[in-house]
Amino acid sequence: MAKLVGALICLLIVAMDVMAGILGIEAEIAQNKVKHLRLWIFECKEPSQQAFKLGLGAAALLGIAHVIANLLGGCNNCNICSQKEFEKASPSKQLSLACLIFTWIIFAVGLSMLAIGTLSNHKSRASCGFSHHHFLSIGGILCFVHALFCVSYYVSTTATLSE
């Protein structure tokens, strides 16, 4: 029964991250459909309401998936406070901690990219300036990477519980 619940949790996390990734890429596509004028490295563009909504949805799904993975994954690595304790820990505990760290880094960068891309499409942001290309699609791709590390974290953390 526990294995079935674990598989469903992993499936839920992957589904949410994949949907966030797809929404991020779709937001980039919607953003590229609006009128814009480009001159060298400067660009003037109208904001895309569709890209704003899709980017906001992608950021929300990424955040929810991250919270679920961290809450249900537990805090098995909370007692590792030094390099010495890390070296003494079992390989599965080391893998779990590494995945946790990568999950947080990918989450921070991915959410930042989605937020920058989404905010550039806010209604009041019709502007000219340096081009901000591909923030939404890079954030979307990082959602897929986030899914891999979240599942790795969850699996390795539950494996350390059985030790």
From TrEMBL:
Lineage: Eukaryota, Viridiplantae, Streptophyta, Embryophyta, Tracheophyta
Signal peptide: 1-20
Keywords, ordered alphabetically: Membrane, Signal, Transmembrane, Transmembrane helix
Transmembrane segments: 51-74, 95-115, 135-155
InterPro entries assigned to the protein according to its UniProt record, in alphabetical order: DEAL/Modifying_wall_lignin1/2, DESIGUAL
Protein name: PGG domain-containing protein
Disulfide bond as UniProt keyword: no
Family of this protein: Belongs to the DESIGUAL family.
Top-level taxon: Eukaryota
Pfam family for this entry, one: DUF1218
Gene Ontology cellular component list: endomembrane system
Subcellular location(s) of the protein: Endomembrane system
PANTHER family: OS07G0462200 PROTEIN-RELATED
Membrane-protein topology: Multi-pass membrane protein
